């Protein structure tokens, strides 16, 4: 089984089968990747907290038939401070949902990865969350090539993604 290594941010995860997790990662080199973390839902799991949403980690992945499988994982940053701050958490989840909705699987986008990592780091520093969100939206629109001066970014993003992802 060929294997590869990548640094990625976990943008979403959900239960899979009896004890596994289906994790969506966003990496600089490979873009959005869906991977399987075997046994991650078990109590004595070696992956349990390492593949949680917001985790920025160094992953060693093995190619599978339909899904890649997490072989090893070393957390570089958990962004626990963002998770503990209500305003930061709301902004961080918005960033992750935006990246997930706007990207296709297997399409590398290093600029978008850097933007996401920078945005989460700014939220970690307890920077004013609404200000960070507006700056993130403008930078996102510039990277996507659809920024229009004078228009509210949230409307351009909703048009680009096809729905308003700010709504829960």
Automatic annotation (TrEMBL):
Taxonomy of the source species: Bacteria, Bacillati, Saganbacteria
PANTHER family per UniProt: DNA REPAIR PROTEIN RECO
Recorded family membership: Belongs to the RecO family.
Superkingdom as given in the UniProt entry: Bacteria
Protein's organism: candidate division WOR-1 bacterium RIFOXYC12_FULL_54_18
Keywords, ordered alphabetically: DNA damage, DNA recombination, DNA repair
Domain DNA replication/recombination mediator RecO N-terminal: 1-79
GO CC list: bacterial nucleoid
GO BP field: DNA recombination; double-strand break repair
The protein's name in its UniProt record: DNA repair protein RecO
Pfam family, one: RecO_N
NCBIfam families cross-referenced by the UniProt entry: reco
């Amino acid at each position: 089984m060929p294997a590869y290594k990548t640094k990625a941010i976990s943008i979403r995860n959900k239960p899979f089968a009896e004890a596994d997790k289906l994790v969506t990662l966003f990496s600089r080199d490979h873009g959005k990747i869906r991977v399987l973390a075997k046994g991650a839902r078990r109590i004595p799991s070696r992956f349990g907290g390492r593949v949680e949403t917001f985790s920025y980690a160094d992953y060693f992945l093995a190619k599978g038939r339909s899904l890649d499988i997490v072989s090893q994982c070393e957390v570089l940053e958990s962004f626990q401070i963002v998770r503990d701050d209500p305003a930061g958490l709301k902004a961080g989840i918005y960033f992750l949902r935006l990246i997930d909705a706007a990207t296709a699987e297997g399409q590398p986008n290093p600029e978008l990865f850097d933007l996401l990592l920078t945005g989460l780091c700014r939220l970690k520093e307890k920077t004013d969350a609404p200000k960070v969100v507006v700056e993130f939206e403008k930078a996102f629109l510039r990277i996507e090539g659809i920024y229009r001066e004078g228009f509210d970014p949230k409307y351009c993003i909703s048009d680009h993604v096809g729905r308003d992802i700010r709504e829960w």
